[in-house]
Amino acid sequence: MTTVPELDDADRDRLLADHPEWELTREGKAIARTFQFGDFSEAWGFMSRVALIADRHDHHPEWFNVYAKVEITLNTHDAGVSGGLSLRDAKMARAIDALI
Fold first, then answer.
1. 3-class DSSP state for residue 50?
2. Average pLDDT in the 38-54 region?
3. What is this structure's pTM?
4. What is the H or E stretch that residue 70 is in?
5. Residue 59: left (phi > 0), alpha (psi -120 to 50), or beta?
6. Alpha helices of the chain — where are they, by DSSP H?
7. Residue 40's CB: how many other CB atoms inside 10 A?
8. Nearest alpha carbon to residue 72 among 86, 56, 59
């Protein structure tokens, strides 16, 4: 199995600086962000747009939705030895942020 290169500390710090709404989770192996919308329809529409982007990028987020709240976690499961942050996550965070 081919692994995806993990972001080094400098790249990870740059990712967080460029996307301050995202927070580091899972001991530095993922980033997460919570989005709050006006109602369920807005949240679902957002999730649909993210799903289309994820399919184009072939990089799918982990997410959780309750009514108007959407929580997204980005992690590359085949990065490094046991998963971590990669350029795929940085690109996905940038694309998701562009929707807001």
1. helix
2. 98
3. 0.91
4. strand 69-74
5. beta
6. 9-18, 40-57, 87-99
7. 13
8. 59
